[in-house]
Design brief:
Elements: E1 5-11, E2 24-30, E3 35-42, E4 49-55, E5 69-74, E6 83-84
Antiparallel strand pairs: 1-4, 2-3, 2-5, 5-6
Length: 93
């Protein structure tokens, strides 16, 4: 049985390549017509790192090996993303 624990993680850097902290990072399972939230994290003060943990049960379609993942970065109090990743298809554990 495959592992049911997944995580999205990374760094957020500004245009000057310095870490940006206190930003909200949200992960979604994106399908053709819909998307489902997987979780949310906040960039840390030291390196701009974030981590979002989620499980296989959160995927829209249970038969998928992994979600089609998209990550969005937002400033607090603003729902319009300042960055959106390309879709990473069938992300593995």
């Amino acid at each position: 049985m495959p592992n049911d624990d997944f995580r999205a993680h990374g760094l957020v850097r500004g245009t000057d390549h310095r870490p940006v902290f206190g930003l909200i990072v949200r992960a979604f399972d994106k399908d053709l017509r819909t998307e489902s939230p997987l979780g949310e994290g906040t960039t840390d003060a030291r390196e701009g790192r974030y981590e979002i943990k989620y499980t296989r049960a959160q995927f829209t379609r249970a038969e998928k090996a992994g979600p089609d993942l998209v990550v969005r970065v937002l400033q607090r109090g603003n729902e319009k993303p300042i960055f959106e990743s390309p879709v990473l298809f069938n992300v593995s554990e």
